[in-house]
Design a protein that fits this description.
Number of strands: 5
Radius of gyration: 17 Å
Strand content: 5-15%
Helix content: 40-55%
CATH architecture: 3-Layer(aba) Sandwich
Distance between the termini: 16 Å
Strand order of the largest sheet: 1-2-3-4-5
Shape: globular
Structural class: alpha/beta
Largest sheet: 5 strands, parallel
CATH topology: Rossmann fold
Number of domains: 1
Length: 267
Amino acid sequence: MILLHGYPDNAYSWEHQIEYFSQQGYKVIAPFLRGYAPTTTSDIAYFDRATIAKDIVALIDELSPNEKVFLVGQDWGAAISYGILGAFPKKIQRAVVLAVPHPVEIRRTLKKSPKHVFRSFHWFLFQLPVVPELIIKLSRGRFLKFLWKLWSPNFNDEAHVKQVIDSMLIGSGVKDSLAYYRAALQKRYRDPELKTLYEQLDEVIRVPTRVLCGAQDMRGEMLERQTYLFAQESEYNWHIIQNSGHFLHREQPELLNQKIQEWFTSH
């Protein structure tokens, strides 16, 4: 089982899932995505969805060369998961995606929904050069804490958020994690050698996939609308999780573990 974290977060986000699924007999791998401490990158590294998908597929090939894996992703980990499902379907047995609709549906919605544009204000802020880095560093990471509170308003996860912030302020962590957002909207931040792969990320998904979103996260509105991005054999399945926001895997870990386990054993 591969667990992909989001922003602003890191692999420790999955501690409740790691403990539970390890006890269920799964070999659980939660990598720190490219650019997140303790990983290090060069000054010319790329952080587009194709590059990160390629990273994860290389990890899968190393750890499970002869067997398909189970995939779970949240936030940016979700966006990357959709891409892996589209471009590398033969690598994945079943998948659960958390909190984020398919990037194609997000782009479609942003073109006509002011409230979703407002919800995604950070996407546009993060396109500016230097400014977001200064905001995060000069606030000593308090801006990142603000995002957690904004996206999961009824959840208090102080200890986890503190270690996320502390780790992100190390080295080039702030700049590298912002590069994910810049590469999403600006082609010059993408690896030109992976142009074909980047296009393949949005292929119709054929892998059995369940999508879960917190009731306090308005992006749940898109889940029914994105059915067209899934083939019939994907058994596309979505649920809204009550009493939770964007970081639902930490807000409702027991329920989420149950929903994931249920999906992974339903074949």
